[in-house]
Amino acid sequence: MFRSKLKTIILAISVTMMAISLISFPQESVDASIRGLNMWWEIVFPSLLPFFIVSEMLIGFGVVKFIGVLLEPLMRPLFRVPGVGGFAWAMGMASGYPAGAKLTARLRQEGQLSKIEAERLVSFTNCSNPLFIFGAVSVGFFHNAKLGVILALAHYLGNFTVGLVMRFYGRNHEVANKEKTKVPSIRSALSALHRTRINDNRPIGKLLGDAVMSSIKTLLMIGGFIILFSVINKLLFHVGITNLLAGGLEVILSALHLPVELSIPFISGLFEITLGSQMTSQVQQATLMQQAVITSFILAFSGFSVQAQVASILAQTDIDFKPFFIARIFHGLFAAIYAAILWNPIYERFYNTEQPSNAVPVGLFGENSWLQKWFTIMIDTGPLITLIALAVYVVLLARRLRSI
């Protein structure tokens, strides 16, 4: 009872302080809101919408079940999750935050995952996509496309390691599965695909409409969190809380032989990864390796903004958020360690232009690479895609309300 009352008081004080800060710093709040809105408007919405819609349709048509049957012998021994987790893992890496949580929650609602399996799966299926790592962070912030190799390797190796660690989660509470894993066959996978589609029993038009409505609704929620935490991050800086937290962090950075100037970017990155990565790239007192280590932690931890998005998605199910949060800390530590370990054997060899055999292909990661061109196209056409999608959402919503 006391803890509940204390929590109520803390939440009330926090919200009140935020309201006072908004009134005290109106211009800074508006600027932060516009920054968060632009990121959602130009990048997040148009890049995630196709993945969300296609994922919903793949689940409805039974393709995910088909993939799950084939991947069962791989995912079960490695991560102790069903084969359908392989689809969520791949889509999470391809589309970025918070697609992994969205798919995991959807699979849990479909009954294809147990509660423990869903908590394991969501812990390592949320990660940054290659477009953001190479396009936004490496080229956009650091102006160094080759740095993306280290950031991506550290990020995805850390993600894989988290999956291996989290396989031990919930062993004591999980019902032992004594059935031996069967060798998959195309025939059994096709049978599972057909049964799933028949059981869904929705017409194609209804399935497509549901996919669009669900995806846009989720993205609207994501946009709200991005804007909110962009404002919170800016207000914390102006009221001095960021500097206060950074003062305590400086002791840890000094013990790790890292410049204390990285403390404020690190704190900012704990709230919002884009701002934290950008501020880290601007610290002149740090070497590129030190910047890469801090940025790797920020990308892997994913920030409270993304974690709030995931918490909102998981709240629609019985999946506990705590394992996901603990996994983010592990992922941040693993990614930072991998970045430090891989720096000399990987980056130094790529950076050495005297060894052309080890150079990074310009067509893939260079300044004019297809990743950078795609990132530029998203910024140019993203708002138009967002507007069209929102218009479609309004039309579909109006039709449904009229048919009720």
UniProtKB/TrEMBL annotation:
Identify the InterPro entries for this entry.
Gate_dom, Spore_IM_YlbJ
Pfam families according to UniProt: Gate (PF07670)
The residues that cross the membrane are 47-71, 78-101, 121-142, 149-169, 211-232, 288-313, 325-346, 374-398
Q: Does the UniProt entry include the keyword Membrane?
A: yes
| Key words, A-Z | Membrane, Transmembrane, Transmembrane helix
Q: Where in the sequence is the signal peptide annotated?
A: none
Domain Nucleoside transporter/FeoB GTPase Gate as annotated: residue spans: 44-133, 219-315
The name this protein carries in UniProt is Sporulation integral membrane protein YlbJ
